[in-house]
Design goal:
heterodimer, A: alpha/beta, Nucleotidyltransferase, domain 5, Hypothetical protein af1432, 3 domains, 6-stranded mixed β-sheet, 5-stranded mixed β-sheet, 20 helices, 51% helix, 18% strand, B: alpha/beta, Methane Monooxygenase Hydroxylase, Chain G, domain 1, polyphosphate kinase like, Endonuclease, Chain A, 4 domains, 10-stranded mixed β-sheet, 8-stranded mixed β-sheet
């Protein structure tokens, strides 16, 4: 890529309390945010109170987004991406709102799930350079503290270990203690107990004996700490002692006092204490040594995602590995980490790759089928008999980082593999295709004995030939294989042939 | 700081302001100043005083009316201030006319310029000229108004010059009149009141052609008065004299209710004509009953009547200053020179990118700023131009360039501050014009005046977006840039550009950024940062460092800042202040302000730059900007103060301050008793900072031109064969 090849990209975050626009200069040498505007609009208070977004709010949304469009236009951006998060996601009239915005402001907005949102936030941290990769090699907790909830994610050995959404959002916490009379110390204690309760549970179940050295802190309320620290950039690492120094200055102070000390508006002053308190508790309970506040925003992640997708930037952390690691951890929790699972995963990927050219499936689908393979039998932990339904329930009710709601539902259905009668009623062809692959992959290890291990796959015209060297008995596998073979042919138009080779 | 919370340690701001006007008046008295320059200074004192009445006195009167009891920092109630100011302003006006009558008029006569007064007899030729002038030019535009039962007392517009007359029906008419009852206009027995406005569309001074070397001028009101019989044909004019009314101009805008600020200001502008009369000036020779009638009709108090011995409204002297042929009595006009780096510069952006550029107006030309905007308007790589406009000159080339840019498809954002006092009408016109051209016009912010001066040009270059910024201490006004001393800086530094973008996003209504990279921005952060800087200096001095603060501004009145300066002074910080106008700080108080000096420079150009220089041992931080250390600047305005990063520019600003601190011609030093006194020179070389800057600017320019020329001459020109 030459020097002149700079892409201009706009990222929009339709958040629960703010609308944000970032303009980015993206080139091989990196991503640079060159303009940023923020407009405060409490979409969340409409949604959370009334379940829908009011007409006045839609009007304001359209006005501001039209203005965003003008700013985008003035920079002559090459592309843009607009994401909406929980307030829009949970509004019952969100389809109408998005349509209004599309018609009136000319902006296409996609709603993203919590796990996608958090994931994009991590991409924004990664886009800051090599520090992220360095930190996550050893125990690191990322705390993404938002207004409504926080996401706590554990990284170790360069990959995600576990991730949980806790209802410790600053606004929520603030409101919980609002009722308490003006005794700051009392509020403080109540907040501490609330936070500790969740954090201790997390610690018991997920942290176990892992060590957390570094905390990475992100989220809007944290941004204002920088100003107080007299920091001229929104990126800093401070150790426990300095953090406590800051904490002590605002601990037990009233909102008005914090307003003065930090020079922030009342609305933000309200958010700062719970936010800093959350980090103080994490520090204490996890015994961490330092905190990195990279100061990144969701829009930065949107830009990073674009840069990676378009291939302008290829370095950085491999986030697909994280999704896979998170899935494996989930499987492990349900004892679904057997050799059989690995075999199915491997088989599925081999089949996927063999027919990739003619299947019409994408790289993302490869990831989904892989995860489905990893998770396909975790329901057995709950119930041996109706394990498929249990698998479906676990996947559809949980969260997998980096995966959208839609994708997760898709995987839940794919994993429900033996439910033959449903297969023709599957909602779309993509689901049917992925199901077909997973069924075959599973059939090849029907006995859970990994008999079909060393095999070759060859696609010849419309015949997919599997040749396996195995001396023993493959009857169970062949039986299962044959029962799913027709479905596979119907879906892909490919005849799948299994040939056992015995050499004496 | 409680230690300094003592009314004794502060000067009342209005009295301090009056002292400033006295310093200007001193220039009008100074024999070392050329005669026509003295006219100019006297004229300035007059327009200054007008504004002072319309804004400050008016607001004090409002406070008294509202029974506002709070005392100012010097412990005076509004009532008490008004009392003192009434006396002081009367004395001041008396002094003004002494200077006019006793010094300037006789001196002008000596120089063969005769200003004809009422008492002067005219010869036949002169009479003939005046009568003809009246008939031909003046009469058609006059609207004489009499007051009677059907015609109420007319609206006397703010600051207009009017002639009041006492008239009586001629004999044969009186019999009819008696049938009527007593009516409004009945001033005294059978005399009526009439008035005529001296038309503002005609020049106030008229030159009468003469045969001799002596030139003669007459005031327009005198021409009218000498012909006043022609206006009231059936009446006899018993007496006539000029008068002028000043009205309360300080209007309070209810911005929360004003959904359309523009409309609201238009309405208020109309209202201003009707504001309460707070001052009545009348010629001393005005008939007592006539004056009494005016007083009652206009509802002014005795102490608000100024009896004037001479022409009303001395701003007219500026017109006399402009008369041709008296160049020897004026200072040689300085033509601003081009900044040496911008002489024959083809690409101003390239030059700015190389290194920051400092412009020192009016010594250096303002043209590069206009050029910057117009080049940007035409440049195909420019994406956006954003600018704040506060007081724009009529027919401003900047406005044209911005409209052009919008035409060329650039995103143009302009903040037009409608609340710029006395300029509202002017600003509304430009704002409308820009809107029509397709610019995004922001009409200021609710509750805040935007006083910052900043221009941002966003350019898409090969290696990405680059921002060019101009920041200044003065308004984007090409006319005042020739009269006000201001500093401006061009920079392409990334941090300055990012802050500039954030400023305009904030002005467009988006949230403030979490922090500023370089700028110090009011009203949210500036005061704290200045207080912090001053206290850092104090701490350093306590640790034994050599610490100095040099600050130059127009006015110093913020109590917290003054207390911080007192505290720093006590710790041994050496503080030198160059404050042109109001200064509420007192010097030389034992245990409070012994290390503080204050000087005020009043010269040919209006001192206007704001410079803040904090020196701790060898560390130095210099800031330039738009803000004074006044409460209103620090808390009620959007202001930007910025640090200077370029070493060479820091050097030139230090030199600038040094020269001003050495000025012994135009600088007055504040004494512990509150008076200002010029330095006694006693054999020292005269050092007039403004003249030194003129000389230096010319010198640098000439040298640069020489070098450029020498370089051009070195090119070999090959001879061409046949």
């Amino acid at each position: 890529m030459g020097k002149s090849e700079i892409k201009y990209f706009a990222a929009i975050d339709v958040g629960s309390f703010e609308l944000e626009l970032g303009i980015y200069e993206i080139s091989k040498s990196g991503i640079k945010r060159i303009d940023y505007v923020k407009h405060t609009i409490a979409l969340g208070s409409d949604t959370y109170k009334f379940g829908k977004i009011s007409y006045e709010m839609i009007d304001e949304l359209c006005d501001i987004l039209s203005d965003f469009k003008k700013i985008m236009h003035s920079y002559k951006v090459d592309a843009y991406k607009a994401y909406a998060t929980s307030a829009m996601r949970e509004a019952s009239n969100n389809m109408q709102v998005l349509d209004q915005i599309k018609v009136r402001a000319g902006i296409d907005i996609s709603i993203i799930s919590n796990s996608e949102q958090r994931f994009i936030n991590y991409m924004s941290i990664d886009s800051k350079g090599e520090l992220f990769e360095k930190y996550i090699k050893s125990g690191t907790a990322i705390a993404d503290v938002g207004f409504g909830s926080m996401q706590l994610t554990l990284y170790d050995n360069g990959a995600i270990q576990s991730t949980q959404n806790l209802s410790l959002g600053v606004l929520r916490l603030r409101e919980m203690v609002e009722e308490i009379d003006n005794i700051n110390e009392k509020k403080h204690n109540v907040l501490t107990e609330l936070i500790d309760n969740d954090l201790n549970t997390f610690k018991k179940i997920y942290l176990k004996n892992k060590k957390v050295k570094t905390i990475i802190g992100i989220g809007e309320p944290l941004m204002y700490v920088f100003r107080y620290m007299d920091h001229k950039s929104s990126d800093m690492i401070i150790d426990y002692e300095r953090f406590i120094e800051l904490f002590d200055r605002i601990r037990g102070k009233s909102v008005e006092e914090i307003e003065n000390i930090l020079g922030v508006s009342k609305n933000y002053a309200k958010m700062i204490l719970p936010s800093v308190l959350i980090f103080q508790r994490i520090f204490d309970l996890f015994n961490a040594k330092e905190i990195w506040m990279p100061g990144t925003l969701l829009i930065d992640g949107i830009a990073a995602e674009y840069a990676k997708k378009t291939g302008i930037i290829s370095v950085g952390h491999n986030f697909e590995e994280d999704i896979i690691a998170a899935s494996k951890n989930l499987a492990k929790r349900y004892r679904g980490n057997s050799k059989h699972n690995s075999a199915v995963e491997k088989n599925a990927l081999l089949i996927f790759d063999a027919i990739k050219e003619v299947s019409g499936l994408t790289e993302r689908d490869r990831l989904l089928v892989q995860i489905a393979a990893i998770l396909h039998n975790i329901g057995k932990f709950i119930n041996m008999k109706n394990s498929d339904t249990a698998t479906y329930n676990i996947i559809s009710s949980g969260e997998i980082i980096g995966i959208s709601h839609d994708e997760r539902m898709l995987m839940a259905e794919i994993s429900n593999i033996d439910n033959e009668e449903n297969i023709y009623n599957k909602r779309d062809i993509r689901l049917a295709k992925l199901s077909a692959i997973l069924q075959m992959a599973n059939a090849l290890d029907r006995s859970h004995k990994q008999k079909i291990k060393n095999f070759t796959l060859k696609l010849d015209e419309n015949k997919l030939k599997l040749e396996v060297n195995y001396m023993g008995d493959l009857s169970l596998e062949i039986l299962s294989f044959n029962s799913h073979r027709d479905f596979f042919r119907e879906i892909f138009g490919i005849e799948f042939i299994l040939k056992q080779i015995r050499t004496f | 700081m409680e230690k300094f919370d003592n009314v004794e340690y502060f000067t009342n701001r209005e009295l301090s302001w009056l002292k400033f006007n006295i310093r200007v008046l001193n220039e009008a008295e100074d024999d070392d100043v050329k005669l026509f320059e003295r006219l100019k200074f006297l004229s300035i004192t007059s327009s200054n005083l007008d504004e002072f009445f319309m804004v400050r006195i008016a607001s004090l009167k409002d406070m008294v009316d509202a029974d506002y009891k709070k005392k100012d920092i010097s412990g005076m109630s509004a009532d008490k201030q008004l009392g003192i100011l009434t006396k002081e302003t009367h004395d001041f006006v008396k002094k003004q006319y002494e200077v006019y009558n006793k010094s300037l008029v006789p001196l002008l006569k000596k120089e063969n310029l005769h200003i004809i007064s009422h008492d002067d007899e005219l010869d036949a030729n002169e009479k003939k000229f005046i009568n003809e002038y009246f008939d031909e030019f003046v009469y058609p535009v006059l609207t004489p108004m009499a007051v009677d039962a059907s015609r109420p007392f007319p609206l006397v517009r703010n600051k207009t010059l009017n002639i009041a007359a006492l008239i009586r029906k001629r004999k044969e008419e009186t019999s009819k009149k008696k049938k009527k009852d007593v009516y409004l206009g009945n001033v005294d027995k059978d005399m009526d009141f009439a008035m005529v406005q001296v038309p503002s569309v005609l020049p106030r001074i008229v030159e009468i052609p003469t045969e001799s070397e002596e030139r003669k001028i007459i005031y327009l009101e005198d021409i009218i008065e000498k012909n006043i019989d022609k206006l009231f044909l059936n009446y006899e004019v018993i007496s006539a004299a000029t008068f002028r009314v000043m009205r309360n101009a300080e209007f309070k805008l209810d911005e929360d209710d004003a959904s359309d600020l523009l409309e609201e200001i238009k309405k208020k502008l109309k209202k201003r004509q009707w504001g309460e009369a707070i001052r009545l000036e009348a010629e001393e020779r005005m008939d007592a009953s006539l004056l009494n009638f005016l007083k009652n009709e206009l509802n002014v108090d005795e102490e608000d009547i100024f009896k004037i011995n001479g022409p009303l409204d001395l701003t007219v002297l500026m017109k006399i200053y402009s008369l041709e042929g008296f160049d020897r009595l004026k200072d040689k006009k300085h033509v601003p020179v081009m900044n040496q780096r911008l002489i024959d510069c083809e690409d101003i952006f390239e030059e700015i990118k190389k290194k920051d550029i400092l412009l020192s107006h009016p010594y250096e030309s303002f043209d590069p700023v206009i050029d910057f905007v117009s080049k940007a308007a035409a440049d195909k790589n420019v994406l956006a131009i954003k600018q704040t406009l506060y007081r724009v000159s009529g027919n401003s080339p900047i406005i044209k360039a911005l409209a052009n840019a919008a035409d060329n498809g650039k995103q143009v954002t302009v903040l037009v501050e409608l609340k710029a006092r006395f300029d509202e009408e002017n600003n509304i016109n430009w704002a409308r014009m820009l809107e029509k051209a397709g610019c995004h016009v922001i009409y200021g912010l609710v509750g805040l005046k935007t006083h910052s001066k900043i221009t941002l040009v966003v350019r898409r270059e090969e290696d990405g977006i680059r921002r060019y910024v101009h920041l200044g201490t003065g308004n984007y006004n090409d006319s005042t840039a020739k009269l006000y001393t201001d500093l401006g800086m061009f920079t392409a530094r990334e941090s300055y550009g990012e802050d500039a973008t954030a400023v305009f996003n904030m002005l467009s209504g988006y949230s403030e950024p979490p922090f500023w990279k370089r700028y110090v921005v009011a009203p949210l952060w500036m005061k704290d940062i200045f207080l912090k800087k001053i206290s850092q200096c104090e701490e350093a001095a306590k640790r034994g460092s050599e610490v100095r603060i040099i600050a130059k501004m127009n006015s110093l009145s913020d109590k917290d800042i003054i207390c911080a300066l007192y505290s720093a002074s006590c710790a041994g910080v050496k503080i030198d202040l160059i404050v042109r106008g109001i200064c509420c700080l007192k010097v030389g108080i034992k245990g409070v302000s012994e290390n503080i000096t204050v000087r005020s420079i009043v010269g040919t150009f209006l001192e206007h730059a704001r410079i803040f220089d904090f020196r701790i041992d060898n560390d130095e931080e210099i800031f330039l900007g738009s803000a004074d250390w006044m409460n209103r600047n620090l808390e009620k305005r959007v202001e930007i103060v910025f640090p200077v990063a370029d070493e060479d520019i820091i050097k030139s600003i230090k030199h600038y301050l040094d020269v001003e601190l050495e000025d012994n011609v135009k600088a007055s030093i504040l004494l512990p008793d509150g008076r200002y006194e010029k330095l006694k020179r006693e054999g020292n070389v005269k050092k007039n900072s403004q003249s030194i800057f003129v000389k230096e600017a010319n010198q640098i320019y000439e040298n640069a031109v020489k070098i450029n020329k020498a370089e051009a001459d070195r090119t070999f020109i090959p001879l061409q064969g046949d």
